[in-house]
Amino acid sequence: MNCAQMIKDIRCRLGLSQMELAGLLQVSFATVNRWENGRSKPAPAAMQKLRELCRSCNLQILEDQGLYHVIAIKEDTAYFEREEERISKKKALELFDTGMIDAFETGTFKGLAQIHGYLFSEIYDFAGKMRSVNIAKGNFRFAPVLYLKPALDHIEKMPQDTFDHIIEKYVEMNVAHPFREGNGRSMRIWLDAILKKELGQVIDWSKVDKEDYLLAMQRSPVKDIEIKALLKPALTDRIHDREVYMKGIDASYRYEGYNVYKTEELKE
Ligand SMILES: Nc1ncnc2c1ncn2[C@@H]1O[C@H](COP(=O)(O)OP(=O)(O)O)[C@@H](O)[C@H]1O
Ligand SMILES: [Mg+2]
Prior knowledge:
Blueprint: H1 3-13, H2 18-25, H3 29-37, H4 44-56, E1 59-64, E2 67-72, H5 77-97, H6 100-103, H7 109-120, E3 136-137, E4 140-141, H8 145-157, H9 163-176, H10 183-199, E5 202-203, H11 210-219, H12 225-231, E6 235-236, H13 242-255
Antiparallel strand pairs: 1-2, 3-4, 5-6
Helix pairs in contact: 1-3, 2-3, 5-7, 5-13, 7-10, 8-9, 9-10, 11-12, 11-13
The structure holds adenosine-5'-diphosphate and magnesium ion (MG).
């Protein structure tokens, strides 16, 4: 919906008159009226107030290239997160057991999107799709949407013949962060697929400490020496070992705060 529709939608969901909404946002009645007629749009400060009002009423405004969605925030986020973990971990195991992971492209965005799509298709409506919003973590802004496609084209052309080259590629893909969520988890599977194909090795993630990993990744856009030094000793040639894979998935999820289920317990 457009901005005017979004404001009216929120106002109606909250059961407010234009006058009442104006009062809550500390703007005039005429202003709200103009927004809803599409004759003007809220200034950033008013937009901020609107978002805060929404949040206090369990609504969230999602914005995507000038279009809006208003969604109800799930009250039981903990439940949602547990389900996300359970379902996508099961999918991760399927990727391994069916050999599908070896059929995907390695080292391309398409291959990564295949992994992401497979893991999260039942969870996110954007599974496997390039994001159209800008995102950041901590102080770091990932590639702006405007440069995302060119960045991915560039990354695909990066060499993947040595360990160092592969990690450099992984670091660039992390800087691109092509999805709204689930980058870390899908990208580590993507990285292992490259290492497996090119070097006959994978990372035993159960040997990589969470805090060390996250710190090294934070540093990686500036200096990749730490992540290289951290991952290299964790390489193993047990590439067909289901145990190594499952423990790796559990570690990878643990880095992102998902720590309820063990992959091993999720087989059908
Ligand atoms: N400050 C940062 N700078 C660069 N990369 C980061 C930073 N913080 C986290 N990351 C990377 O982002 C990943 C998490 O991305 P995210 O999309 O949330 O994936 P997931 O949903 O699987 O957790 C982490 O595993 C890490 O590799
Ligand atoms: Mg995340």
